[in-house]
TrEMBL record:
The lineage of its organism: Bacteria, Pseudomonadati, Bacteroidota, Cytophagia, Cytophagales. InterPro entries: Gp5/Vgr_OB (IPR006531), Vgr_OB-fold_dom_sf (IPR037026). This is Gp5/Type VI secretion system Vgr protein OB-fold domain-containing protein. It comes from Persicobacter diffluens. Residues 358-432 form the Gp5/Type VI secretion system Vgr protein OB-fold domain.
């Protein structure tokens, strides 16, 4: 397409589809801004001639109201419509005898900025997420490219517009707003549409090619929780402008041969590919930046390569059109083409650190990825039917070893997020509250003597720094007490049987029998005496019974009997019977 050198002289305004006759002579200036990743907007400055005696607003626009639809056109044969939007603000000014009205107009998609929202998306790709948000707001949203399904994506206290830009950045896509619709295009998904504009010796321009932050290729690394190692993926083929200003050294001189992106999140290889592509593509589109001013003939689409032609023209070549400003001033229209991205590509990420969240435990089993995650709902989202899966931080987690303490269902837990990204939640702990109170065994005091662990069924492990004791106890009352204060170990069961180990020795107390059974020998040895006492009978039985005394041997009873069924032998130095 060839652009002529003439400028249109008039600006036409329509309010709710109706032309305001005669207002064009009062229009002082119009600026229309259309940029990638921004909502289209316009500012209209109108002279406001008023009756100095009555100070009445000019009737030409006295009936304009917030929310009216405003259309701005070049008043040519075709009445080229450059912008249509909603009147969002009216500013009246008066100074030094002159009065003006400034109209702020935004594209209909401004509805996406209306409020901060909380949402949970499960098992959806970014294309589905973006389109779902558009449908909820009555805005047509399209997505050109590919998107991998994601297990869970969270939107928290973020406007739909900012959230959509964040999601687009993650898929190496940029956003174009036009006529109330929003289109997302993956820059690397295919060759850009091309537009041709002819340059003249009167074309005004301000362009720069810079090697700063340029890269030849990019690779993204992510953590694989399943494989316990970093995985990587390189960007697919990306697109760069073809221009005499550019050569292969633009990346070499900045040291940007390869750009590495690292993430702690458990990304799939397909996601890493998009992350790498995003960094690489956005930087390449920024290789040439600046502005070119041409006459206004028609509304031009942004987000495409433009071939600027012109024999021997110094700036002729291919460049990326990232934005347009239509300017009406001095009764003339100008089109300022924004070459490159409208802002540094790194700012398109719009980072927002995810806050720490309260969660309520929903289920402990059924993790579809088998990563030992648990399912929690997030009260802040008010979507109890949409639980998310979160990894659980343990004090000790190793191969076939570690601690295993899970919260209970309906417990209140605290979640944080890897890299501040809400797709990767981790439970870092549980908290008490007035509903889930601490066990009665624990009292919150400044002395803070007691520590411990008590299960829902009252299995207890209590450490008492004041008494210097460690107590293990079951619900029935079976206990083991390690006591440094008494220098003792006490084992006691629910029936009253106990064993005491202290400086006096070992005491075993039983409310009934004590039975010792061994598959082999039982040996009793004492450095002192061994005393066996029974209130009832004392019996000893064995295949053979051998008793031997180093000095005296005595056996005494009210009645005594020594009997053998075979030979009975009694020997001694002297045998005395009665």
């Amino acid at each position: 397409m060839e652009h002529q050198s003439h400028h249109y002289q008039e600006c036409l305004l329509k309010v709710n589809g109706k032309v305001i006759d005669g207002i064009e002579k009062y229009i002082n200036q119009v600026n229309i801004y259309k940029n990638i990743n921004q909502l289209n907007r316009a500012e209209i400055l109108i002279n406001n001639p008023i009756d100095n005696n009555e100070r009445k607003i000019n009737s030409l626009y006295a009936d304009m109201a917030i929310g009216d639809e405003i259309a701005i056109s070049c008043k040519d044969i075709n009445e080229t419509v450059l912008f249509t939007g909603l009147l969002m603000g009216i500013n009246h000014q008066y100074a030094n005898g002159s009065a003006f009205v400034t109209l702020d107009v935004m594209d209909k998609a401004v509805l996406l900025k209306g409020k901060r929202n909380n949402r949970i998306f499960l098992e959806k790709g970014d294309d589905e997420i973006l389109q779902e948000i558009g449908q909820e707001n009555g805005i047509e949203v399209s997505f050109e490219g590919k998107a991998t399904p994601l297990e869970q994506v969270l939107q928290y206290q973020t406007s739909d517009w900012n959230f959509m830009l964040q999601r687009a950045y993650n898929t190496a896509a940029f956003c174009i707003n036009e006529e109330g619709a929003v289109k997302f295009i993956q820059a690397h998904s295919g060759k850009f549409d091309e537009l041709e504009i002819e340059l003249t010796d009167k074309t005004e321009y301000n362009l720069a090619a810079t090697a700063t932050q340029q890269i030849k290729s990019s690779v993204a690394y992510g953590w694989s929780a399943d494989d316990q190692e970093m995985i990587e993926s390189s960007a697919p083929e990306t697109i760069a402008p073809t221009h005499p200003f550019l050569n292969d050294k633009i990346c070499e001189v900045s040291g940007g041969e390869e750009y590495m992106v690292s993430s702690n999140q458990p990304h799939a290889v397909e996601q890493l590919e998009l992350i790498a592509a995003a960094r690489e593509q956005l930087r390449k589109l920024d290789q040439i930046t600046g502005t070119i001013t041409i006459p206004t003939e028609e509304a031009l689409p942004i987000g495409q390569m433009v071939n600027f032609s012109g024999e021997n023209h110094v700036i002729a070549g291919e460049m990326f059109l990232g934005g347009i400003e239509y300017e009406y001033t001095g009764n003339k229209w100008y089109t300022h083409l924004q070459i490159g991205l409208p802002e540094p590509s790194e700012n398109l990420k719009l980072p927002e650190s995810a806050p720490t969240f309260i969660g309520i435990v929903k289920t402990l089993e059924g993790d579809p990825l088998g990563q030992y995650r648990i399912s929690v709902t997030l009260p802040a989202f008010q979507q109890d039917d949409f639980p998310v899966w979160a990894r659980l931080s343990q004090q000790y987690a190793s191969a076939t070893a570690g601690s295993w303490i899970l919260p209970e269902i309906n417990d209140e837990v605290i979640l944080t997020f890897l890299d501040g990204k809400m797709e990767s939640p981790i439970i870092i702990g549980s908290v008490y509250n007035k509903v889930n109170t601490p066990p009665e065994d624990f009292v919150q005091e400044d002395t803070n003597f007691k520590k411990g662990w008590i299960s829902p069924e009252k299995l207890k492990l209590i450490l008492d720094d004041e008494l210097k004791t460690i107590t293990i106890e079951t619900p029935a009352g079976n206990t083991i007490i390690l006591d440094d204060e008494e220098n003792a170990i006490t084992i006691r069961d629910a029936h009253g049987n106990e064993g005491i180990f202290n400086e006096e020795g070992i005491s075993l107390n039983s409310i009934k029998d004590i039975n010792l059974n061994a598959e082999a020998d039982i040996n009793l040895t004492a450095s002192g005496n061994i005393v066996n006492t029974a209130s009832g009978d004392f019996s000893a039985e064995g295949m053979n019974i051998n008793q031997k005394a180093s000095s005296a041997f005595a056996a005494e009873g009210a009645n005594a009997e020594l009997k053998g069924s075979g030979q009975t032998v009694i020997k001694g130095g002297m045998v005395m019977i009665n």
